[in-house]
Amino acid sequence: MRVKYTKYTLWIALLFTQSVLSLLTEANPAITIIGILGTIAAITSAEGWYWSNIVFIIYALGSALIAWQDNLYGDLVAMLLSSSGSMVALFTWRRSLKSRKVRTRKMNRAQWLAIIIGGLVVLACVCVILLCINSVYPILNAVVLTAVILAEILFLLRYCETYTIDLLGDAALLIIWCLSGNWILAFTVLVDVTFAIYGLINWQKLCRKGK
User: Fold this and answer.
1) Which of 13, 19, 138, 154 is a Cys-bridge partner for 159, taking CB atoms 3.0 to 4.6 Å apart?
2) With contact defined as beta carbons under 8 Å apart, do 160 and 200 qualify?
3) Burial (Cβ within 10 Å: 0-12, 13-18, ≥19) of residue 38
4) Angle (nearest 5°) at CA 151 between 93 and 149
5) What beta strand segments (E) does the chain contain?
């Protein structure tokens, strides 16, 4: 009981901190709401909760709109892909539910090799496209988009390693939002990084329990 109290207290503290940050920076209310939804989505997804997909869809579509306004085309496509992946997960995950949580699994070495080779190819192609359309921060956006493509594939297949790929994309996205001066979404990504690490550990536990 004490562990649950500590965990939920942390969640409330993170949401409170984000709200205070938005007041201090006089952020747009819409950006604040999107940021809070992103934090909730990161927390609940790490717990393996099925309905986290609904929250994430709203967050991703809102972030896509902001990215479009800031000419961050790589991030725009990444958020649209992420929202589409969560929409698909709403239907495909229903078969793998254990209580309210999803059954997860782990990748083998051959699958890791395929992901690395495929990821490098996709990264090169995306980088060239973003350079051609004069996207802001093309290399960083290419890393974000490539990470999202790979992570979404692993996410839909319920592999624990989706969070490992997420960490790479989140690191690049954090730099983008900091350079853009959007501190609310930067904080959201920072929370996402924290819960990506927690999610990786928790999904591995769910994987062992599911065996």
Assistant:
1) 154
2) yes
3) buried
4) 110
5) 97-98, 101-102
What the block records as the tokens of 207 is 């994987």
Per-residue pLDDT at 118: 92
Q: Are 83 and 62 in contact (CB under 8 A)?
A: no
pLDDT in tens, 29-75: 777 777 777 777 777 776 667 777 788 888 888 888 887 887 777 77
For residue 97, what are the β-bridge partners?
Answer: 102
Phi–psi pair at 133, nearest 5 degrees: -100, 10
111 contacts: CB under 8 Å, gap ≥ 6? 159
pTM above 0.85, yes or no: no
The residue type found at 95 is R
Find all residues with CB under 8 Å of 202, minimum gap 6, and list them.
Answer: 46, 47, 48
DSSP calls for 11-26: HHHHHHHHHHHHHHTT
- Token output for 195: 């819960």
Q: How far, CA to CA in Å, does 160 sit from each of 46, 73, 82, 85?
A: 10, 28, 17, 16
